[in-house]
Design goal:
- The protein is an alpha+beta fold.
- It has a single domain, classed as 2-Layer Sandwich (HIT family, subunit A), CATH 3.30.428.10.
- Helix content is 24%, strand content 22%.
- Strands 4-3-5-6-8-7-12-13-11-10-9 form an eleven-stranded antiparallel beta sheet, with helices on both faces.
- It starts with a strand and ends with a helix.
- The structure holds zinc ion (2 copies).
- One zinc ion (ZN) binds next to helix 3.
Length: 320
């Protein structure tokens, strides 16, 4: 059993002898939907709520009566929001917390068939820019304490529409897991993520690095081929990224997705960005392929059983 020394998570590495990447069967992310009826395709903008941000070569706009065309990314309110700006009043039940906030869909490309594992350098940089912009707008809003940005790729990973998109949910609270992380960081002599990024840069769990970031298989990987992206500098959120950092982050994200795509033949996956407007926090991005099952034991204990040691996962991802 392994324990992540500052997150407090446990995981069990139960390596199944000789299990290779090709042993992980999944249904893939093959195209099923029709671009003519896809609400995320150019020409079908009327099928979505008006966009709060439309990213174009001429700048960032929002939809008025007419929908803005010629975009490379657009973000609008989710039709079925998990958190809304005008919440229902709390009930007499135990949970009386307002889910105040917002829920956006970010369409990352006008191309229906586009796959982030094949994004060009420019597309990756734009993606990071859009994430930074949406984060910035939302975190500065009254009553918003946390902004969750995540991507579900493939149906089994939770994407109901195949056209590439991410989601943003703004919350009135900081998730308990992040509060715990910050508490631990405060009592440590140095930021644990800074130490981790430095130490893992020379470990067998390193997959890729550039000047600004490292891509690693975490020591306590919950699922096979999990990876983390960490800035080497102590940055708390995407807002602190300068031009060079943005380019580096785009590059490392592209490397992570391409390597997973090649090694596991286009797996479904989730990634999420953890960040806070708090200098104690250290920005991190976690990518988890959705190729294993979370079952009874995980639900009972919160401890994951992972059949691929991260050291092997890192070697495979380095060499692919
Ligand atoms: Zn589409
Ligand atoms: Zn740090």
């Amino acid at each position: 059993m392994r324990r992540h020394y500052f997150l407090g998570d446990y995981c069990i590495i139960a390596a199944e002898r000789g299990k290779r990447p090709s042993d992980f069967k999944h249904e893939g992310t093959k195209e099923r939907s029709d671009p003519n009826t896809c609400p995320f395709c150019p020409g079908n903008e009327e099928m979505t709520p008006p966009a709060v941000a439309v990213y174009t070569d001429d700048g960032i706009f929002s939809d008025g009566e007419d929908r803005v065309k010629n975009w490379w990314a657009r973000s609008f309110q989710n039709l079925y929001p998990a958190a809304t700006p005008k919440p229902e009043p709390p009930t007499k039940e135990w949970v009386a917390e307002f889910a105040r906030g917002g829920h956006e869909v970010i369409v990352e490309s006008p191309d229906h068939k586009s796959d982030p594992a094949r994004f060009s350098r420019q597309e990756l940089e734009r993606l990071v820019l859009v994430y930074r912009d949406r984060y910035s707008r939302r975190i500065s809003q009254e009553g918003v304490a946390y902004v969750s940005i995540f991507k579900n790729w493939g149906r089994v990973a939770g994407a109901s529409i195949s056209h590439t998109h991410s989601q943003l949910i703004a919350l009135p609270i900081v998730p308990p897991a992040l509060i715990r992380e910050m508490d631990t960081a405060t009592s440590a002599p140095r930021c644990p993520y800074c130490s981790l990024a430095e130490r893992e840069a020379t470990s067998e769990r390193l997959i890729f690095e550039n000047e600004g970031f490292v891509l690693i298989a975490p020591f306590c990987s919950q699922v096979p081929y999990e990876t983390w992206i960490l800035p080497r500098k102590h940055l708390s959120s995407l807002e602190e990224l300068d031009r060079a950092d943005l380019q580096d982050l785009g590059q490392v994200l592209g490397e992570a997705l391409r390597r997973l795509d090649r090694l596991l033949s286009g797996p479904p996956y989730n990634y999420s960005i953890s960040q806070l407007p708090d200098r104690r926090y250290h920005l991190n991005i976690r990518i988890q392929p959705a190729i294993s099952t979370v079952a009874g034991f995980e639900k009972n204990t919160g401890i994951f059983i992972n059949t691929v040691p991260p050291e092997e996962a890192a070697r495979d991802l380095r060499e692919v």
